[in-house]
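Project standup — Tuesday

K.O.: blocked on the structure for the chain from last sprint. Re-posting the sequence here as requested.
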Amino acid sequence: MTRAFRYSAWAVVLFGAVARAQQPAPPPPAVLQIFEETVKVGKLPAHEKLETRWAKTLVDGKWPGSSLAMKTIAGAQQAWFVTPHESMASIEKLSKDADKLTALTAQTDLLTAQDGELLTGVRSMFAVYRPELSYLPANSVPVPKLRYFDVEIFQTRPGHTAEFLESRRLAKAAHAKASMPDGLIYYEIMAGAPVGTFIRFRGVQSLADQDRYDQAHTAKAYQDAVAPSTKQINELTSASVVNTQHLIFELDPKMSVMPKEFTSQDPEFWTPKPKVATPTTSPAQQKPKAKSQ
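H.V.: unblocked you, prediction finished:
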């Protein structure tokens, strides 16, 4: 499966992007395909330029899909390209449709070769939404208004996934009881990573939200809600989790390919107008001042 296939033919908005204030957020996509690229030290600017060119190539080639690009600001130097699907069957359909785009495929094959010189590793992961673990606030911020994703990756101990699931259900119940402001969107990796890998996404509108969420978790409302199950959550997590990785990603509009109904919700960020250079006048071109009489 080449990099061209990462752009989903299912042109939907990701993670409840059409949610409005005081309205229930729609459920996240059933399946995500995540392309993870680890960038060589010192090659980040070159990688961003290449990915920007890649996105433009797909737009110019009339690719009918979407891809949300994001890059780490905390954690290993990575870029993720996340595409939504309604099922595994839609991933297969996209692959077959992409085979017909021979001219575009030829261009992206060249870009793939150039991209490989800038990377230390690449992997593709299929992730399935776990609604029973996820918590969606009623007033979720639309994804076009977000600027970051706070991501946690959990690797569970073989044979102890059930304990992890129960710990997340208890945490979700506490969030719901306290009407917490931060969403918890859980996916389970079905292929492309070790068995028992789970990813938690949390949308962040600004880094100041991180402070607000931390304060909400120490506030009385949440502490009262989680208190009856705190010990159990800690014990279940300790018994089931081998490793936890915490990353913060910044959304990148230049490397993304998103539909108009998505970008139009915040066009200044997603499709900014090119800046017009202000003409400068050299001293030789300046008009001489009139002599005083």
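K.O.: great, moving the ticket to review. The longest helix spans residues 44-60. Confidence is low (pLDDT under 50) at residues 4-14, 16-22.
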